[in-house]
Amino acid sequence: MIRRIINSAFCLLLVAATGTAKAQHTHKASIDSVKDEGFYRITLNSSLTQYLKTDFSDLRILDRKGQQVPYIIERNIRRNSSTGFQSLEILENKITDSGNSLLILKNNGNDSLNHIQLQMKNAAVSRTASLSGSNDKSKWFIIDNQLRISHTPGTNTDDMVQELQIRNLTIHFISLKLITDEMILIRLRQPDILKIM
């Protein structure tokens, strides 16, 4: 008897869920057709989102046949951040007379930066780095002059990736000085967006 009640309740919930799934949607918008299989980023503007629930549970994407297309909601994206990857121009990558590695990059975009990822050889030493910024490449200001870069213990790989947290800045030129000649690549990253040169 209890099993029958549970089964009946389950069927009612299923019917209720099915009934709401087939409800007519009152607002529609068109999106561009898909050229290739894969993930696409669709920006929802406020003229459409004002009619949606805050969790977007009532959002549906339909194909030409009216069949629902699965999607993933990407959250915590800064409104002013770019969508995608941006190449960074390497202006200088050299060893100075004092033995410091000097890397100067140009950020051609207007996005603010708050993370730096370094990819370098995994040496069993810790280093101090100095990070500076500029908008004209002549007047530099120190962002942080006591950044610690440490090796990654317990790994057998030759390369390591170190992420450095910095304050949120919109700058066009980045200068990184560190005592090593092993630096190969630097990546700049915003929350949820990786910038790679």
What's the structural blueprint in terms of helices and strands?
Elements: H1 2-21, H2 46-49, E1 89-95, E2 101-106, E3 113-121, E4 127-134, E5 141-149, E6 159-169, E7 173-178, E8 183-190, E9 193-196
Antiparallel strand pairs: 1-2, 2-7, 3-6, 3-8, 4-5, 4-7, 8-9
Strand content: 25-35%
CATH class of the domain at 89-196: Mainly Beta
Distance between the termini: 66 Å
CATH hierarchy: architecture of the domain at 89-196: Sandwich
What would CATH call the homologous superfamily of the domain at 89-196? Galactose-binding domain-like
**Which fold name is given in CATH as the topology of the domain at 89-196?**
Jelly Rolls
How many beta-strand runs? Answer: 9
Radius of gyration: 25 Å
H/E series: HHEEEEEEEEE
Strand order of the largest sheet: 1-2-7-4-5
What class, by secondary structure content?
A: mainly beta
Describe the structure.
With 197 residues, the chain is mainly beta. It has a domain at 89-196: Sandwich (Jelly Rolls). It is built from 2 helices and 9 strands; from the N terminus they run ααβββββββββ. The strands form 2 sheets. Strands 1-2-7-4-5 form a 5-stranded antiparallel β-sheet, with no helix packed on it. A 4-stranded antiparallel β-sheet has the order 6-3-8-9, with no helix packed on it. It starts with a helix and ends with a strand. The model is unreliable at 1-21, 76-85 and 181-197 (pLDDT under 50).
Task: Briefly say what this structure is.
By secondary structure, the protein is mostly beta strands.
